[in-house]
Each structure stands twice: as C-alpha cells, then as structure tokens.
Amino acid sequence: MRRIGAALLAAALAPAALGAQRGAWVDQLYPYAYYSTIDGFWLAGRYGWYSPMGFTERPEPNWASVKFDAAASTQGSYLLSADAAAPAYWDGWRVALTLSAARSNRLGYYGLGNAASYEPDSITPASPYFYKVSRTTQSARLTVQRRVIGPLRVLGGATVEHTDFRTLPGQSRFREDLASGVVDSATVPFSDYVVRGGIVVDWRDQEVDPHRGLFAEALIANGRGYTRTTAHARVYVHPLDKLILAGRVGIERMTGAPPAAAQLTMESSDGPLIALGGYRSLRGYYDDRFVGPGKLVGGVEARYGVLWAPRLLELKLVAFYDVGRVFAPGERARITGDGLHSAAGGEVALALLRNTLFVLGFGKGSEGSQLLFGTTWSY
Questions:
Q1: DSSP string covering 233-254, please?
Q2: Are the CB atoms for 140 and 134 separated by under 8 Å?
Q3: CA 161/CA 44 separation, integer angstroms
Q4: In the chain, which residue ranges form alpha helices assigned H by DSSP?
Q5: Which of 53, 219, 245, 340 keeps 20 to 30 A from 172, CA to CA?
Q6: What's the mean pLDDT when you consider all of the chain?
Q7: Residues 155, 144: contact at Cβ < 8 Å?
C-alpha cells in the first residue's frame, strides 16, 4: 500500500535502543496518520514492546517485539492486527505470529490475466467503482525458522484465512466476472487452510537496510484446492562508499484450482506480498493491477547516500526500475521478456539505526503515476 505520513514518534525511542541490553524491553504507545491513494486518509494507533539489540553486531532489527495496531480510513477500510516476532531471541530460531482482521474497501480489481484492460471511460457517475471491490479478511499466520548451518535456514508454517468480497454500488468488473463465472461464486467467501515449508539463505549484513549480501528463498505451500511454489532472490552490492545497488527476481506458480482470493498475493518467508502491482511488486501500478496464478517480478535499484552516518542515520536518493507479469491457468510460469509490464521512478529514504526506515517516492507505469510510501524497502 502506498502511504504518505508515518509514526515518526518511533524514532524518538532510538537513544533508548542504543543503551538497552538483551532481555530489556521498551514499550511504545503513539497515534499516527497516513494517506493512501486507494483509501484516502488513515488514523491509527500502535501499542507494543520490543527488546532492542543495543550495540550487538547482528543483522536482525531487534531480539523480539510485540505490537498491536488499529487503523481506519476515510473510505471505509480498517485494520486490526496483533504481531509477535522473535527473530533472534532464541539462538538459532525465528518465530513470527500475526493475527489480523482487515477490510480493503476500495481494492482494485481489473479482471484476471496479464492483458486485463484498463479503460478510464468505464468509470462514470453511475459506475464510480467500476475497477473497485471491497475485500475483508481475517487471518492467523505462524512461521517458524530454524538455522541449519551458516546462513541456511529451514522454514515451516501454517495460515488460516477467511476472505470475502462485496461488490460496490454500480456496475463493476468484479460484478461482471462473478456473474459470468470467471470468478467462481463458490469461492466467495473462501476459507483457506495453508501449510508451507521451504529453505532460506540469508547473507545480508543487515535485514532492515542491507548494504551488501544475498537473500534467497524457495517455498512450497499447500492450500485448499491448490499448491503454490515460490522462489525469490535478492542481491545487494556496495561498490562505492555511499552507493548501494540492489536487484531482485521472483517467480511463483500455482497449480490446482486457486481462487481469486489466493491469486491476489505472492508468498514470501516474511509474509504475503500484494502482487502484481503496488509498492512491494510493481511500483507505478495500483495494488493487484494484474491477477493470475503465475507471477514474475524483477527489478533493479540504485541507492545513494546524501547524508551518510552508517547505521546511525542515512538519507538516500533512490532510482528504480521494476518489471513483472502474470501467467494464465495452465501456462508455465517462467523467466521471460515477453508480456512484461514495467515502471520506473525515484524515492527518498531515511534509515535510522538498525530498525527504522521510511521511504517516500513516486513510480510511473503505462497508466500513470503513483505516490509511494513504505516502512520497508520494496525488496
């Protein structure tokens, strides 16, 4: 999701993090606000605890954290979440548990397939939400990782998720696809039960804001009526003092009969990514602009430090280029230059210590430009 504004009060806790030791916990309570091009203005609040790293030289952002978030938008969307993560609290283990309930009341839906068209004339006073649908989800997701040797980890996890869609007033692409059977009405609503496993190789020097290293993962997940296989690779090089180059490629294949609810996301060890379109996959296009059971994403970035106090404060200018496409049912997901959608843009990023990052920018695709905001890198 593209957001403008964030909880800058979190940065005020940085001095406490520097002096903390393992086992100490710092609590947080603050309101915040942001803006989304999909959902308008949001008001939110967070309460949480975290156990900071202090001066320990490790790539993880903290020993462990627990946080609760509540947010509501002017367009009727909301989010309630409870998130607990322990990336380094127990030697050799990583554990993460997330409970969430959310409604995306203006989620984009443009049809299925890589060639799904966007025709601005379809949006009229009688059909103002022609390319929109309301989606609600409730989910519980558990992931456990165990270090095998060096940077190699094995992963196991499970997810329970319930998804429903509601058509908005007027004619819409989702209403048409639901009536014609393109979207199977038997999968609206849809309750999914997923188990997954895989391997992760993580050679990054730092997880939140890596300067150099490699991250790769291969995952397989079995859901209700479908199987999902996913692979990602991300590389970071630091050829000059203030210049960091990053690149990534990701591919996913879904077999069986995956419902539209499952096709909207792409799996990763950190959690599901909105794909294809949006800040985490194809910047410059709306979230979930292209939907299909197979997905291909790629990109390159150049990040240059204009303020450079490494690991304390880094202000970077970023240039990026993203590509991606989806594949139809039965079509082999593969690395190809055919049918790719592309976007380019720029960002300004502020990194504080080991666990705080704000990114603000814009991306331009073939259908216009999008404002971008994130509290993690796109990849």
A1: EEEEEEEETTEEEEEEEEEEEE
A2: no
A3: 23
A4: 14-19, 173-180, 260-263
A5: 340
A6: 92
A7: yes
* CA distances, 346 to each of 123, 150, 164, 280, 364 (Å): 29, 35, 35, 14, 9
pLDDT at residue 291, as a whole number:
97
**Beta-strand (E) ranges in 37-76?**
40-51, 64-73
pLDDT tier, 363 (very low <50, low <70, confident <90, very high otherwise): very high
DSSP letters, 141-200, are EEEEEEEEETTEEEEEEEEEEEEEEEPPSS--HHHHHHHHTSS-GGGSSEEEEEEEEEEE
Alpha carbon separation from 123 to 120, 157, 202, 276 (Å, rounded): 6, 41, 45, 22
What pLDDT score was predicted for residue 8? Answer: 35
Q: What SS3 string covers 210-229?
A: CCCEEEEEEEEEEECCEEEE
Buried residues in 262-301 as b, exposed as e (16+ CB within 10 A): bbbbbbbbeebbbbbbbbbbbbbbbbbbbbbbbbbbbbeb
Q: Cα 300 to chain center, whole Å?
A: 17
pLDDT in tens, 308-352: 999 899 999 999 999 999 999 989 999 999 999 999 999 999 999
CA distance 196 to 218: 11
Are 138 and 161 a contacting pair, CB within 8 Å? Answer: yes
